[in-house]
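Protein modeling request. Please complete all fields; requests missing the sequence field cannot be processed.
Requester role: graduate student
Desired output: 3D structure, token encoding
Chains: 1
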Amino acid sequence: MSTHRIALVSIAMLASAPALAGGTVPDVLFLPTSARALDVSADGSLVVGVQGSGAFQWTQANGIVPFTGASFSSGTNVRVAGDGSAFGLDVNDADQKMHAARSTDGTSWDELPVIGPSCDAFLLNFYDINADGSVIVGLGWVEACRAHAFRWDPVNGTVDLGSTVPGRSSRANGVNGAGDVVVGWQDLANGTRQGARWNDGVQSLFTYMAPGGQTYLCGEAQCANTAGSVVAGITLFGLSGGNAWRWEEATDATTLLPQLPGFTGNNAIPLGMTPDGSTIVGTTGGFFIGRSAIIWIDGVAQDLKTYIESLGGSIAPYSTLGTAMAISDDGRTIVGWGAGGFGEPGGWIVTLPAATCAADLNGDGIVDGADLGDLLAQWGNRGGAADLNGDGIVDGADLGLLLAAWGPC
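Delivered output (409 residues):
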């Protein structure tokens, strides 16, 4: 949830020999099988999740530290602010109603003001928190057990984002870094949950136009990038294949996020993305037993397990990572759950190797004319730093790689 843009390694760069620093490989940490990792801070240092009937925060130094100070609702949807300063989740209030709450220390919790009466055991359901912890979004129950998306901040309180379809519900699933863009769904008159975006409270809906010109409704929006300019969601109504979708403000165009082969009967679910929107993580969907975590890089889908193996890592003894929930700003830390036996959540934390910019020959953080000069000075040499493709000679192939990497690393 950082406010700055990052550069990620493209698939082409990963295929080249010098792409990883120090020959390191991905590290996979498995949490106890009763723990699910659900979110990670922007810098990758703080992970939150649920364990049994409670919730926790995790750091490398302290391991799992349970949250205290409240009765936590079963299946609570805990999240951490991008800067690690606040947490959001659902607690049980004094009347045992599920109530969205916020904490800055994990020990005391402030229940947010509601927007309507309860629906059975539900009052206000938490879904996401923004980069600095000042905005919380989710679902608030209103009359007749209908629900509306809500947005809370300390100045305006809990604001009902309403419904643009009379008598129908809406919900907020995610929020951008600044907290001014909220994404989720709007329930249509026929019950279809169409993907929605609220920009400063004004709602717009997502559609996808296929190459042949036919328009399809997009299902619920699941997540947005830091700026709120890239949104990803689940389901394209009337279109088979189980693909997810990705919308970009710069082009006002929606494109497909492909489902993994072998899972086209399920709907792929994108759940987290990097600030520039180029890397998205999620899952194949379907029943949680048998899911596979997905990483989309520049719109190309890979099984996260296969991707880790391609970088020299392993998820042994498991064969799948289930569901990838969130990714850090630099794209290196991915968290989720689903590795384990039948009925075991098997939470996990993946740390990918740091990427280097091999074409930055002088190490100044940018590939430019100075690096081109260094390469030309080494032209024809047998190996050396300018041998970017590792074929034993500095030649035109290496020049092509340098030009392809031109610009900031």
